[in-house]
Design goal:
Largest sheet of chain B: 6 strands, mixed
Low-confidence stretches of chain A: 1-5
Chains: A alpha+beta (511), B alpha/beta (417), C mainly alpha (291)
Largest sheet of chain A: 9 strands, antiparallel
Largest interface: A-C, 116 and 118 residues
Number of strands of chain A: 18
Shape of chain A: elongated
Number of helices of chain B: 18
Distance between the termini of chain B: 81 Å
Oligomer: heterotrimer
Number of strands of chain B: 15
Radius of gyration of chain B: 26 Å
Low-confidence stretches of chain B: none
Shape of chain B: elongated
Radius of gyration of chain A: 35 Å
Number of helices of chain A: 20
Mean pLDDT of chain A: 86
Mean pLDDT of chain B: 89
Strand content of chain B: 15-25%
Strand content of chain A: 5-15%
Helix content of chain A: 40-55%
Structural class of chain A: alpha+beta
Chain lengths: 511, 417, 291
């Protein structure tokens, strides 16, 4: 090998790239600062400083290689994980999604109901004595008035003119807005409420019509109590994200808000019999499914890689066809497999002339899941096994042949352990992926078959994540906080399992 | 000359930054655009008609965003915040009530005209806890397509069963009536045979103490007509596995009838099937069967207030509720309209479905989706049908078990309605 | 010598038969659903023909619809997808390679812990990952529309976020098999770590880089969950998202055009795979170690 000289060209490229990147980031920080977005500006500044420090320092060689990937990983993978864990301690579900302030604002809106008389007004926008005003004509009594932000003045006949429909169009002291001004009216008109006495307000319902509204909710000073003057119920803040009836807690006002409540989701998980009961069975199936799937896929993929290792005729044709399962969108393939296994109309039963109910028998359904997963996964394992085979040093094979080892001994005792060592992180990764393989189970069997009529809660092919999904999202309400708590607990389980198997396979030790 | 690399980098960076800053920073303008979200079907149909309109809400411009599928739209809506959220959205009625419960919908006031032209049940589907939020635009309901190759449509269910037995023996059909949309579309068969979901009080609200699922009349009729006396399993008269299952039988001319909606018109016509549209006949021809009627509609979001266009949104909702808006919508989407004054301008098929809506029952999602009893309506039906018809476990025992679960569901759902 | 060769050749032929038989059996298994896809794409009724494998009525209407219907810019979607997948594949494999080199070759402090952390991160089942990413990109959209919601650039960033975890493991395993003597020899020759990386290791690992690139390319092509959330405007959609409109509707699915689109989209994938075969060959590594 020729001695390598440090290249001046490389240094110039590095400086140039870094300069352009820095310039781009500085511009982005500027835009963020202009919009007062301090989080984005701060994050970008950290990245900018980090990049320059890392790439210009003489030490920290590893950081230079890890920096770009890590930045992207932190922003797009770790932040969502933190967000999930953070949401798991909130009472966060349908009806309890927004912040408390937004909920109270919305409740003010909800408490503004149309007056039972149904009174409505034709409205002209304009100005009266320099103030924003509306010229109102009662649609049933044709009474005309001027509405200001704090006052309603009825006009006497003669101080206004009407059109053919008895709608007032001009009045003394009132200048109507031009169309251009009407287009900008939303800013002042949206919150414009003309007091009409006795908790009654005239509220615009567009740019040319208004309605008489009754404010039925009375809020106390610190927003802990609401009195419904129409229904006669007092609502209090129940500390868990809703206003509920003081006397009858089942009367719940919506919208509620997200409320910090760590016990609700976690304790609920541990004590709810619907969640606890079938959990062990589902867990055992999940582990078995993931383990057997990976084993089958790897065995088939590796055998295929060995078979394609020699230059035989039609090899390119075989490879082209065998990669097709991987090239098709998986969710379509899964649905096709579900159709093929259909007891009445499926191709499999039709071709073989049998009438086996594949998807309704618990054990047959599990077999179907494994077969379909094998179909989906073996091309991936074929590809990585091919790569692993290239990594095997050929001199080992020659040395073993000289020592008199047979072909099968060479494979099982020498090659296979080496391949396993190269691929074991990927095998464990595939195990983890299949542990959480929601798509396959949900699209193929929906977790079934399940005998609801006899009280079964988990289906025969439910894995932890589909069971969790059904629990959190199955009813009318989506319980996102519960789903996050389940995520966290599952992460603890799968993480511990994966770390243990990493240690067992001693992959990390060899590093 | 030792030039520090960082010095070079800094100067290049400074020049490049100056160049970029000279270019421009996005400015903010006053907002008069109303952003409406639609799924792929409605978007494709309504964009040519309404996108860019400045007459629907005077002073405002309408902008329609079309999503690649309804799932994508719902997914984005769930995650949207004020920054990217829409000002209005067209979707099934359940979206409106969920948005109201979450505090993301804009309350509106109905005018007398609107209350006169739009049926109370339709308006009620887009209201929550007594406050109106949305305007109903279309009815989603099903009716029976009868394949006229097998003669005229029977007037009683008993006649339908007899026709089926005859043709099945001759090997001409494998299925009688197919619920083309899975268990959601099974209600007409249940009600035709004397069953159903829940009873109703005099004022039309659900009476959850009466569960009709396992009524004695239904059990008797189902055992007589749907069960093969030899095998004790289903005889093929009733199938519930949806479009990809028995629906294919209908397309291939091997089923007598299918109960589904206007969304299958195109496929059925393409397959060359001649059909007539009518409700599923009741057991003796007296009375009528019922199917679920869902509504689709439009509502304004709370984000409209943040974006400063809420008054424009209210004006737009007024337009959509009017006859002009309803007619434009029905013509473009070919969905049966809700506005009672728009009927005479529709095509025969769409009119057929609008008629079907008259026998529809309001699809109360609060009751149907509740699973306090262990599973919701749709899953309980699937399990019950499998037990009774596929596995032959007996109609009475299966439906009794199902009814027990449903009773708990309905009671719980009603309290949360 | 030639006699020995001849003998070797003869004894090879029977042992190759098992390869052919195995391949054919596996192909039947692999191709079974593909036949359904193709026959659904040729069906006129728009249903999945999972009943009988061959279509009852053949029509090319679905294919012509993809290319002639003005509301379906299928060609644009293909271009979007190929560009996105290619850019993502190249950059993400590079990032993975950087990381793998650091993990495998550079004994830095905290290496074992960072490897474990990286592994654990991949394992987290995140129900709210989509929600968090949506919030981040909403934010970015208001500031930098080019990489915010609705842009292919933003989607690329999200894919790159997961790239380090994805390819780093495969590449690391491969790099571990290259003996450390190579590094030492190069260091003695005076090479810097970055030169060792670009001029020695990268050429050595071509087979595994190709495999990684291929896996990443195919993965991006078929990804639709994130993409459908991001890409709304009909001109910026990828193929996976664009075809969604046929099957993600409220009432039922129109499988004909979807199947046709999938068949057309699979063609570049298979072509790419076959054309890259010659880079995934043995013998590239063996020689350079000795030299």
């Amino acid at each position: 090998m020729n001695p390598l000289k440090p290249s001046a060209m490389a240094a110039i490229i590095k400086v140039f790239l870094l300069a352009i990147a820095s310039a781009l980031i500085v511009w982005m920080i500027y835009v963020a600062v202009l919009a007062s977005d301090w989080i984005v500006a701060g994050t970008l500044s950290v990245i900018l400083i980090g990049a320059n420090v890392v790439y210009f320092s003489k030490k920290a060689v590893a950081s230079k290689f890890l920096f770009p990937g890590s930045v992207l990983l932190v922003i797009f993978v770790i932040v969502p994980i933190i967000y999930t864990a953070w949401m798991s301690v909130y009472n966060y579900k349908t009806g309890n999604e927004i912040t408390k302030d937004a909920a109270i604002t919305q409740l003010h809106q909800v408490g503004l109901v149309p007056d039972p008389s149904g009174t409505s007004y034709d409205m002209v926008l304009g100005h009266y004595n320099g103030q924003d005003a509306v010229l109102l004509t009662n649609q049933s009594t044709h009474e005309v008035s001027i509405g200001l932000k704090d006052k309603l003045t009825v006009l006497s006949a003669g101080s206004f003119t009407t059109d053919a429909n008895q709608k007032a169009v001009t009045a003394t002291g009132f200048t109507a807005d031009t169309p251009a001004q009407i287009a900008q009216a939303n800013t002042w008109l949206s919150a414009f409420m003309v007091p009409a006495g006795n908790d009654l307000y005239i509220s615009p319902q567009g740019t040319d019509v208004a309605a008489l509204m009754h404010e039925k909710f009375q809020f106390n000073a610190d927003n802990t109590k609401i009195v419904d003057t129409v229904g006669g119920i007092t609502y209090v803040d129940n500390g868990n994200g809703n206003f509920v009836g003081q006397k009858d807690a089942t009367a719940v006002l919506y919208p509620g808000w997200r409320q910090f409540n760590p016990a609700q989701n976690y304790v609920g998980l541990l004590t709810d019999p619907k969640l606890n009961g079938p959990l062990l069975g589902v867990f055992i199936w999940t582990i078995s499914f993931a383990f057997i799937s990976v084993l089958m896929m790897w065995a088939l993929g590796l055998t295929l890689a060995l078979a394609m290792d020699k230059k035989i005729r039609f090899r390119a044709f075989y490879r082209g066809v065998l990669i097709l399962p991987y090239a098709m969108p998986s969710f379509m393939s899964i649905l096709i497999w579900a159709g093929i296994f259909n007891v009445n109309y499926g191709a499999l039963n039709n071709l073989l002339g049998i009438h086996v109910d594949w998807l309704n028998d618990p054990w047959l359904a599990r077999l179907v899941i494994l077969i379909v997963n094998l179909w989906l996964g073996f091309p991936y394992f074929y590809l990585i096994s091919t790569g692993a085979l290239q990594a095997l040093p050929t001199d080992i094979e020659e040395a073993a042949e000289i020592d008199g080892a047979s072909g099968s001994q060479i494979f099982w005792r020498i090659k296979l352990p080496l391949i396993f060592q190269i691929l074991s992180p990927l095998l464990i990764g595939s195990f983890a992926f299949n542990f959480n393989n929601f798509n396959l189970i949900y699209l193929l069997t929906k977790g079934g078959p399940i005998d609801i009529l006899n009280g079964q809660t988990a289906g025969a092919t439910d894995i932890l994540i589909t069971y969790a999904y059904k629990t959190a999202f199955g009813g009318n309400d989506q319980n996102l906080g519960l789903a996050c708590a389940i995520s966290v607990i599952m992460f603890v389980i799968v993480g511990a399992l994966s770390m243990w198997s990493l240690k067992r396979s001693r992959v990390l030790e060899e590093m | 000359m030792k030039i520090r690399k960082s010095g070079i980098a800094a100067s290049v960076a400074a020049i490049a930054t100056a160049a970029m800053l000279a270019v421009s920073v996005p400015a903010h303008a006053a907002n008069t655009t109303i952003n409406i979200w639609m799924d792929d079907q409605r978007g494709a149909q309504l964009s040519p008609v309404w996108d860019g309109s400045t007459t629907i809400a005077p002073g405002y411009t309408i902008k329609i965003t079309t999503f690649s599928s309804r799932d994508a739209m719902v997914s984005a809506w769930d995650k949207a915040t004020s920054a990217s959220g829409p000002d209005m959205m067209f979707d099934a009625a359940s979206s409106t009530t969920d948005a109201a419960k979450n505090g993301k919908a804009l309350p509106i006031v109905l005018t007398a005209t609107q209350k006169a032209e739009l049926p109370a049940s339709a308006l009620g589907a887009l209201a929550y806890q007594g406050v109106q939020y949305g305007i109903p635009m279309d009815v989603d309901t099903t009716t029976m397509y009868w394949n006229t190759k097998f003669g005229k449509a029977p007037k009683t269910f008993a006649a339908l069963a007899a026709t089926f037995q005859k043709l099945k023996k001759a090997g001409k059909v494998t299925t009688g009536i197919c619920a083309g949309d899975g268990t959601w579309g099974a209600l007409p068969v249940l009600t035709a045979l004397g069953g159903g979901a829940w009873g109703y009080k005099a004022d039309g609200t659900p009476d959850v103490s009466k569960v009709l699922f396992n009524s004695p009349a239904f059990v008797k009729n189902a055992t007589n007509l749907l069960i093969d006396s030899k095998t004790k399993k289903g005889n093929g008269l009733f199938a519930w596995d949806g479009w990809d299952g028995c629906g294919q039988s209908f397309i291939n001319g091997k089923a007598l009838a299918i109960n589904t909606g206007s969304w299958r018109l195109g496929a059925i016509i393409d397959a060359g099937i001649d059909y007539t549209l009518q409700p599923v006949p009741s057991i003796d021809g007296k009375g009528t069967s019922h199917q679920w009627s869902g509504f689709g509609g439009v509502f304004g979001t709370s984000y409209a207030k943040d974006h400063g266009v809420d008054l424009g949104v209210k004006a737009a909702l007024s337009y959509f509720a009017s006859q002009k808006g309803a007619l434009a919508y029905a013509t473009a989407t070919k969905r049966p309209p809700v506005n009672s004054k728009v009927g005479s301008h529709l095509s025969a098929d769409v009119a057929g479905f609008a008629n079907a809506a008259k026998t529809g029952l309001v699809q109360e999602n609060a009751l149907l989706g509740d699973n306090a009893g262990g599973a919701n309506w749709y899953d309980v039906l699937a399990s019950t049908f499998t037990a009774a018809f596929t596995n032959g476990k007996g109609v009475k025992s299966s439906f009794d078990k199902g009814a027990a679960i449903l009773k708990v569901d309905f009671a719980d759902g009603f309290s949360k309605r | 010598m030639s006699i020995a060769l001849g003998k070797k050749k003869q004894s090879r032929t029977p042992s190759n038969l098992w390869r052919h038989i195995f391949a054919w059996v596996l192909m039947v298994f692999a191709v079974f659903p593909i036949i359904v896809v193709v026959s659904s794409s040729l069906s006129a009724t728009g249903a999945l023909s999972t009943g009988s494998l061959l279509p009852t009525k053949i029509s090319f209407g679905n294919y012509t619809m993809l290319f002639t219907n003005s509301t379906i810019p299928f060609g644009k979607w293909m271009v979007n997808t190929i560009v996105l997948a290619a850019v993502n594949a190249v950059i993400s494999v590079l990032i993975g390679m950087f990381a793998a080199y650091a993990f495998s070759r550079l004994r830095y402090r905290g290496r074992k812990q960072s490897l474990q952390a990286l592994f654990l991160i991949q394992v987290f089942p995140s129900f709210l990952a989509l929600a968090a990413i949506y919030v981040i990109f909403e934010h970015l959209y208001t500031l930098y529309p080019a990489i915010g919601l609705g842009s292919l650039g933003g989607l690329l960033l999200v894919y790159l976020g997961g790239s380090m975890g994805g390819s780093a493991w495969l590449l690391k395993g491969f790099l571990d098999t290259i003996p450390m003597e190579l590094d030492e020899a190069a260091k003695i020759d005076g090479a810097s770590p970055s030169q060792i990386f670009w001029q020695i290791f990268l050429p050595l690992t071509v087979p595994i880089l190709v495999v990684s690139t291929l896996l990443s390319f195919i993965g991006t092509f078929n990804e639709y969950i994130l993409a459908s959330l991001f890409l709304q405007d009909i001109q910026t959609r990828t193929v996976a998202v664009g075809l969604q409109s046929f099957v993600g509707g409220t009432f039922g699915a129109n499988w004909g055009p979807f199947a046709a689109g999938s068949v057309v989209a699979a063609i570049p994938l298979v072509a790419l795979f076959l054309s890259l075969q010659k880079y995934i060959v043995s013998g590239v590594t063996a020689g350079s170690v000795k030299g």
